[in-house]
Write a structure and sequence with these properties.
A two-stranded antiparallel ribbon has the order 1-2. The longest helix has 40 residues. It folds into 2 domains: 380 residues, no CATH class; 91 residues, no CATH class. With 507 residues, it is mainly α. A hairpin with a 2-residue loop joins strand 1 and strand 2. The protein has 15 helices and 6 strands. Helix content is 66%, strand content 5%. It is a multi-pass membrane protein.
Length: 507
C-alpha cells in the first residue's frame, strides 16, 4: 500500500473507534443529569438508583473516550503534517477552545460529581452533573465547527498560499456547522436511548421470575429511553433534511454519489435501493428502485429542481480544479496522474442507506420493547432480550455509516472548495499526507489498532461486569450505609426514604 492509503486507513480506524464512545458519552451524560434532576425534585429514590447505575456506565465509557481521543490530534502531525500546515491558522482556535472545554471544564465538574455525592449540597452536586454534560456538548460543537470548515471553508483569506482566519465568528457560525451540530447531538441521544432501552429490557427479562425490588428502575429507564429514541429519530430526519439541502449547494458531487446519480435529472428521483454494480460511474449495469421527484424535493424543497449527475459534475470539477494532480514527487504514484473526482460509490450509496435504515431500526426496536412490556408484561421468550441487546448496536452502526459517508463523500478533497468562497481554499487529500515511509505508517497503524483492540476488550469487560451487577453493584445494601457507619435502612422504590444510605455512597 502507498503511504496515502495507509494513512487514510489509520485515521479511519482510530477515528471511527473513538467515535463509538463519543455519542454515548454525550447523550448518556445528559440523560443521567436528567435522572438526577428528577431525584432532586421529587425525592423518589428510583431516580437516584437510575442515576447511580447509568452514571457508572457513563464513567467507564468516558474514560475510554478520553484515552482513544488523545490520539486523534496527534495524528495530524504524525501522518497529516502537510494538511496541518495548510489549515493550522484556522484550526488552532476551535481546537484550543475544545481542549479548554474538554480537559478543564469537563474534567473539573466530572471530578466534583464523582467525589461530591456525600460532600456537596444536592443542588450544587446536580449543577456539576449539568455542567459536565453541557461541556461535552460544547466540546462537540468546537470539533464540529472545525470539521465543518473542511466541508465548507469560510471566514478566511489567502496569505502566501495558505488560508488565514479573518473571522472566528464566521468559522463558529458556519451554516454547515450549525446544521451538523443538532444532527450530531440528535444522533448522540439515539445512541444513548438505544443503550438504555437494550440494557433495561434485558434486566427486566433477566429477573422476570423473581420479585425484583428494582423493577421500577428498569421500567422507568425503558420508558425514558424509548421516548428519547423516538424524538431523536424525528430530530435526525429534520436536521438531516437541512444538511441535504446544504449538500446540494455546497458539495453536489457528494449528493450525486449518495444516489449513484450518474446522469443529470430534472426532476430527480430518490433511489431506495439499487441492484447491480453501483461502483460503475456510467450506471450501465445498475437498476434502481426510486421514488419519482423526491430527490428534487430533498435538494431544494420542490419537485422540479434539476440535480446534476456524476458525469456532468466531473466535467465541471475538471474545468475548475484541473484534470491532473501536480507533478510533485511528494504525491508518489499520483504525481501527474488524472484526478478521480468521483468518491467511492458503493461506500457513499450504501453508507447513506445504512445510516437511515439502522436509525429507523433503532427507534423501532425501542417502540417494540415498550409495547411488549406494557402493563407490567415481560416476554418470556429468549428472542426478546437478544433483540433488545442487538438494538443497542443499530444507532452505533447508523452513526458510523453517517460519518464514513460524510468524510469519504468529499474525496478527493480533504478541504472541500467552497463554491462561493475564496479561490484557492481547498486541498486534495493526496497533498495532505506527511512525508513518511510506508513502513513507518504500517508500524503506527498496527500499534494503534492493537492498543485499541485491547481497550475494546477492557471496555466490554467492564460494561458487562457493571451491567450484570445491576443496582446492587452501585448502591449500598439497605441498613448498612455507604460510609461504613451504618444507615437508616429505609431505602425503597417509593421515594419515602433511603437518602442517608444513598448520599453516603460515592463512586
Amino acid at each position: 500500500m502507498e503511504v496515502l492509503e495507509l494513512a487514510r486507513w489509520q485515521f479511519g480506524i482510530t477515528t471511527v473507534y473513538h467515535f463509538l464512545m463519543v455519542p454515548l458519552t454525550i447523550g448518556l451524560s445528559i440523560l443521567v443529569a436528567g435522572m438526577q434532576t428528577a431525584w432532586v425534585r421529587t425525592g423518589d429514590v428510583r431516580y437516584l438508583k437510575m442515576t447511580k447505575f447509568w452514571g457508572k456506565l457513563l464513567l467507564v465509557n468516558f474514560a475510554m473516550g478520553v484515552v482513544t481521543g488523545i490520539v486523534q490530534e496527534f495524528q495530524f502531525g504524525m501522518t497529516w503534517s502537510a494538511y496541518s500546515r495548510f489549515v493550522g491558522d484556522v484550526f488552532g482556535a476551535p481546537l484550543a477552545m475544545e481542549g479548554i472545554v474538554a480537559f478543564f471544564v469537563e474534567s473539573t465538574f466530572l471530578g466534583l460529581w464523582i467525589f461530591g455525592w456525600d460532600k456537596l449540597p444536592k443542588k450544587v452536586h446536580l449543577a456539576c452533573a449539568w455542567a459536565f454534560s453541557l461541556a461535552t456538548v460544547a466540546s462537540a460543537y468546537f470539533i464540529l465547527a472545525a470539521n465543518s470548515w473542511m466541508q465548507h471553508p469560510v471566514g478566511v483569506e489567502m496569505t502566501d498560499g495558505r488560508p488565514t482566519m479573518n473571522s472566528i465568528w464566521a468559522v463558529l457560525t458556519n451554516n454547515t456547522a450549525l446544521a451538523a451540530i443538532p444532527h450530531t447531538i440528535a444522533g448522540t441521544f439515539a445512541v444513548a436511548a438505544a443503550f438504555v432501552v437494550g440494557i433495561a429490557a434485558w434486566q427486566l427479562w433477566r429477573r422476570r421470575a423473581e420479585a425484583d425490588e428494582h423493577r421500577a428502575v428498569w421500567r422507568s429507564s425503558l420508558k425514558l429511553g424509548t421516548w428519547v429514541g423516538v424524538v431523536a429519530f424525528g430530530a435526525l430526519a429534520v436536521t438531516g433534511d437541512v444538511q441535504g439541502k446544504l449538500m446540494f449547494e455546497q458539495q453536489p458531487m457528494k449528493m450525486a454519489a449518495a444516489e449513484a446519480l450518474c446522469h443529470t435529472e430534472s426532476p430527480a428521483s430518490f433511489s431506495i435501493f439499487a441492484v447491480g454494480d453501483v461502483a460503475d460511474a456510467n450506471c450501465e449495469d445498475v437498476k434502481t428502485f426510486t421514488v419519482p421527484a423526491l430527490l428534487s424535493f430533498l435538494a431544494h424543497n420542490d419537485f422540479s429542481t434539476e440535480v446534476k449527475g456524476i458525469e456532468d459534475l466531473v466535467g465541471e470539477y475538471q474545468a475548475r480544479y484541473g484534470t491532473n494532480y501536480p507533478d510533485d514527487p511528494a504525491l508518489g504514484e499520483l504525481a501527474g496522474q488524472p484526478i478521480d473526482y468521483v468518491p467511492s460509490l458503493p461506500v457513499t450509496y450504501w453508507g447513506f442507506r445504512i445510516m437511515i435504515g439502522f436509525g429507523a431500526l433503532s427507534a423501532g426496536a425501542g417502540v417494540l420493547a415498550l409495547w411488549l412490556t406494557r402493563k407490567g408484561r415481560i416476554p418470556a421468550t429468549k428472542w426478546f432480550p437478544r433483540t433488545a441487546l442487538l438494538g443497542i448496536v443499530t444507532p452505533f452502526v447508523a452513526n458510523t455509516a453517517g460519518w464514513v459517508f460524510t468524510e469519504m463523500g468529499r474525496q478527493p478533497f480533504v478541504v472541500v472548495p467552497n463554491p462561493t468562497g475564496v479561490d484557492g481554499v481547498w486541498m486534495f487529500t493526496a497533498q495532505a499526507v506527511s512525508r513518511v515511509t510506508a513502513g513507518e505508517v504500517w508500524t503506527s497503524l498496527i500499534a494503534l489498532t492493537t492498543v485499541y483492540a485491547v481497550l475494546g476488550v477492557v471496555e466490554v469487560f467492564l460494561m458487562r461486569k457493571y451491567v450484570r451487577g445491576g443496582i446492587e453493584g452501585v448502591m449500598p445494601p439497605p441498613g448498612t450505609g455507604g460510609d461504613g457507619k451504618g444507615g437508616t435502612g429505609r431505602g425503597n422504590d417509593d421515594g419515602k426514604g433511603g437518602e442517608d444510605d444513598a448520599l453516603a455512597f460515592a463512586y
